[in-house]
Amino acid sequence: xxxxxxxxxxxxxxxxxxxxxxxxxxxxxxxxxxxxxxxxxxxxxxxxxxxxxxxxxxxxxxxxxxxxxxxxxxxxxxxxxxxxxxxxxxxxxxxxxxxxxxxxxxxxxxxxxxxxxxxxxxxxxxxxxxxxxxxxxxxxxxxxxxxxxxxxxxxxxxxxxxxxxxxxxxxxxxxxxxxxxxxxxxxxxxxxxxxxxxxxxxxxxxxxxxxxxxxxxxxxxxxxxxxxxxxxxxxxxxxxxxxxxxxxxxxxxxxxxxxxxxxxxxxxxxxxxxxxxxxxxxxxxxxxxxxxxxxxxxxxxxxxxxxxxxxxxxxxxxxx
Length: 320
Description:
By secondary structure, this protein is α+β, with helices and mostly antiparallel strands. The protein has a single domain, classed as Alpha-Beta Plaits (2-Layer Sandwich), CATH 3.30.70. Helix content is 57%, strand content 13%. It has a five-stranded mixed β-sheet. Helix 6 packs across helix 7. It is elongated and about 110 Å long.
C-alpha cells in the first residue's frame, strides 16, 4: 500500500486537496443558508439593485437635505403646540401640574397675566385682595407639588394634587351656580385606583386637561358639567414613541355662547387640544331642567406628548 502511495502520490495529493476544498465550501454554503439556491437568488437581486442605483446630483441632494430640515422644524413646532407640556421634554409632569393649578386657582390666567397684578385682578371681579391671595397660594402649591411629583410617592403626590385642584374647582362651581353632576365628581378621577410612577405623567396631564376644560366652563357660566370620564387603565408609553395619547371624555350642558367659549379654548391655534370627537345635541329635558336654548356638548379630548426628535426609521426599507 505504501508502495502504491509513493508511486501515485503526485496524482492523489491535488485530487484530495481539491476534494477537501469542495467539502469546506459546501459546508460553508449550507451554514450560511438553508437553501443555497435561495441565497443565490437574493445575491442576484442585490447585485441588480446596486447596478440600478443612481447617484443624485448635488442639487437634488441639497434639496432633499433642506426639505428634511424644514420638515423637522415644522414637526417641532407642532409638537410644541399639541404637547400639553409645550414641547419641554422631560418636564411634562411638572408643567402639567402647573397648568392644572393655574386653571383651578388662577382661573386660567396665562403666565404673563398672572404676574401682572392689574390684569390678574380682572379674573377675580376686580378684587385685588382675592387675586393676590390666590397668586401666593398658586406659587406655593406649584413649588410643593413639583417637588412631591418628582421625588415623593407617586400615589400620594397624585392624590394631593387632585385634592387641591378638585377643591378649588368645586368651590368655584358652587359660587358660580354651576352644577357638577355625580358622574363628574372629583372631575372623573374618583374611580381611579393607585397611581404608579409609570402612569403618573399620564394622570397629571389628563388632570391638567380636565381642569382647563372645567375652569373655562365655570368662568363662562355653563349650566351643568354632567360627566367626566378618565380611563381606569392607561398605557404609559415609551420614551421612543413619537406620540403618546391619553383621552378624556367630558359632557356639559349650557347655552350656546358658554359652550362655544369652551370649544374656542380647545381649538385655540396658539395651543390647540387634539379632539377625537365632539358633538352638539339638544339635551334631554330632565338633564337641562327643561330650560330652552340649552345645548349639550360631548367631547373626547386628548392629552398628548409629542417627541419630534424621535427617529421614525422612515429611511429603512422593509424586508421583502
